[in-house]
């Protein structure tokens, strides 16, 4: 197989220098006037390297593969059919493909079977395949949650071809990790080959990495590359607990749950996602770091679940633009949009608009870092939060609760349902606020019904947005509710204009507004137009 680029043909067999020329054609000569005198370029002799590897690189990965590959397994899953999803919600600008999607090469997806009575079909089944690896001699295997989440039956295929039944031990949606265990009677007393996590001597960016897995159902596949970057945030719900390693070793669907090794054969990460506009590998893959994977695996083996701290707030990043709008230069952290009624934060007195900057003395630059630090707390343990309220710093201690399952937290998003009728409200008296590019009006009963605005929500209804304004470019829309400006509630256009005037007097060029959309608050910094 070859790929064309800029008029050149790049061979599927990798090579350099003499090797590439030899592949292009034995006996090829140099061009130009000296072609007749130039010696033929011939293949390298057997037993000598075809190219000089970079300093520190192994001549071959064969020894590493031979050492660790018996511990890597193919995982075949049978589950109830469901539409496959190729995108992780919330990952803006990226097409993240959870490898291990439904279907194997040459097979259909979700093939239904007739029921025994011939009247109604049985629940359709589908096959999926992923990867995993043994972490103990007694049969514990680490893989991805999305590989086994809906499994009715799990089969493990070893390098020697043995197929063994396995059962789910526990899974963690927050990190997309799971642990299964071989329970097949045929394997009773077996001593499985296993590999170890590397948590101390982390490879540097640019160091070699080798992955082994089951891409597209092709088990036992090895690929190599380098560590491309650390601490990648993918923007999805798992990123709150995972600072991903980026690697460029080719990985594809089916590699999910497989290991990435250093050149000593130690596991440095668990392959979990790829950036892929096309659905295939483009050289940007993401692995869960070994220290996170090992910690989660130990908890799952011990108790079948992962317990994390929880304070009960909805947060978003406190951006540099938001900081400028509030006159808080260089302040980083997360801002509270909502406080869960009756939750730990509510009991401790935290409020919407509070800006969280540190947890137990550890500075946090964004919501992911905040969530990660809070999650480290044990339920019932006091968590000291450094906050800024009304421009002044203070410390609040919150007694941590237990974080609910990620599915239940995400399930709060989209609870509105259409009740059928969509009445057109009487047009309320509206006023333009040119400084923000908005047209605003009061929230009356008809608009609450039309836009499904809860009765307790106060503010001004956005009835129009100027397309070329900052508000228009940032996605504000008709039906949104303008709730606060720089922390001050607004229920009249006069209050909006007053807040803008106050910001201008302080020398600021923007304001931080809280907008309610579908009954959920979002903070948006808006530039003040001249």
Please, could you describe this protein's structure?
The chain is α+β, with helices and mostly antiparallel strands. It folds into 4 domains: 1-47, no CATH class; 61-108 and 122-306, Thrombin, subunit H (Beta Barrel); 309-410, Pdz3 Domain (Roll), CATH 2.30.42.10; 431-527, PDZ domain (Pdz3 Domain). The chain contains 11 helices and 29 strands. Strands 23, 24, 25, 26, 27, 28 and 29 form a 7-stranded antiparallel β-sheet that branches. The model is unreliable at 1-52, 83-121 and 411-428 (pLDDT under 50).
SSE blueprint:
Blueprint: E1 2-5, E2 8-11, H1 18-24, H2 62-68, E3 72-80, E4 125-134, E5 140-144, H3 145-148, E6 151-157, E7 163-172, E8 177-182, E9 208-213, E10 221-232, E11 244-247, E12 259-261, E13 267-274, E14 285-289, H4 290-303, E15 309-310, E16 313-318, H5 320-325, E17 333-339, H6 344-348, E18 355-359, E19 362-363, H7 367-375, E20 382-389, E21 392-399, E22 401-402, H8 406-410, E23 431-433, E24 438-441, H9 445-451, E25 460-465, H10 470-473, E26 481-485, E27 488-489, H11 493-505, E28 510-517, E29 520-527
Antiparallel strand pairs: 1-2, 3-4, 3-6, 4-5, 5-8, 6-7, 7-8, 9-10, 9-12, 10-11, 11-14, 12-13, 13-14, 15-22, 16-17, 17-18, 18-19, 18-20, 20-21, 23-24, 24-25, 25-26, 26-27, 26-28, 28-29
């Amino acid at each position: 197989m070859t790929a064309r680029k800029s008029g050149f043909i790049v061979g599927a067999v990798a090579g350099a220098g003499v090797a590439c020329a030899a592949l292009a054609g034995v006996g090829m000569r140099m061009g130009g006037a000296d072609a007749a005198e130039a010696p033929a370029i011939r293949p390298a002799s057997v037993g000598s390297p075809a190219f000089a590897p970079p300093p520190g690189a192994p001549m071959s990965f064969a020894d590493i593969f031979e050492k660790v590959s018996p511990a890597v397994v193919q995982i075949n899953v049978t589950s109830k059919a469901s539409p496959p999803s190729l995108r992780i919600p919330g990952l803006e600008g990226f097409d993240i493909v959870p490898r291990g999607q439904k279907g194997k090469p040459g097979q259909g997806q979700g093939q239904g079977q007739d029921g025994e009575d011939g009247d109604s079909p049985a629940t359709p089944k589908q096959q999926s395949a992923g990867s995993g690896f043994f972490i103990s001699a007694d049969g514990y295997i680490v893989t991805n949650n999305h590989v086994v989440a809906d499994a009715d039956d799990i089969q493990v295929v070893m390098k020697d071809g043995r197929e063994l039944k396995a059962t789910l031990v526990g899974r963690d949606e927050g990190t997309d990790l799971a642990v299964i265990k071989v329970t097949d009677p045929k394997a009773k007393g077996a001593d499985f080959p296993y590999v170890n996590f590397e948590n101390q001597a982390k490879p540097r960016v640019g160091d070699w990495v080798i992955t082994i897995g089951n891409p597209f159902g092709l088990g036992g596949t090895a690929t190599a590359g380098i560590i491309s970057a650390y601490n990648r945030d993918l923007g999805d719900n798992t990123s709150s607990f995972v600072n991903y390693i980026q690697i460029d070793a080719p990985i594809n669907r089916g590699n999910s749950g497989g290991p990435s090794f250093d050149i000593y054969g130690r596991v440095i990460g668990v392959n979990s996602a790829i950036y892929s506009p096309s659905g295939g590998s483009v050289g940007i893959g993401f692995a869960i770091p070994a220290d996170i994977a090992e910690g989660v695996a130990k908890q799952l083996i011990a108790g079948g679940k992962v317990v994390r701290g929880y304070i009960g707030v909805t947060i978003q990043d406190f951006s540099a633009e938001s900081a400028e709008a509030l006159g808080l230069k260089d302040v980083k952290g997360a801002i509270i949009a909502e406080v869960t009624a009756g939750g730990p934060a509510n009991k401790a007195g935290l409020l919407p608009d509070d800006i969280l900057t540190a947890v137990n003395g550890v500075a946090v630059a964004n919501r992911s870092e905040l969530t990660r630090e809070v999650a480290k707390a044990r339920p019932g343990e006091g968590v000291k939060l450094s906050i800024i309220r009304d421009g002044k710093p203070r410390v609040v201690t919150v007694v941590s609760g237990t974080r609910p399952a990620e599915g239940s937290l995400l399930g709060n998003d989209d609870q509105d349902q259409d009740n059928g009728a969509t009445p057109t409200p009487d047009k309320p008296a509206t006023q333009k606020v040119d400084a923000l590019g908005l047209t605003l009006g009061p929230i009356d009963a008809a608009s609450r019904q039309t836009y499904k605005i809860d009765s307790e929500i106060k503010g001004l209804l956005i009835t129009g947005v100027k397309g070329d304004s900052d508000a228009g470019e940032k996605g504000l829309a008709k039906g949104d509710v303008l709730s606060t400006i720089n922390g001050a509630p607004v229920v009249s256009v006069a209050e909006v204009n007053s807040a803008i005037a106050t910001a201008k007097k302080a020398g600021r060029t923007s304001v931080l507004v809280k907008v309610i959309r579908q009954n959920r608050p979002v903070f948006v910094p808006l530039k003040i137009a001249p």
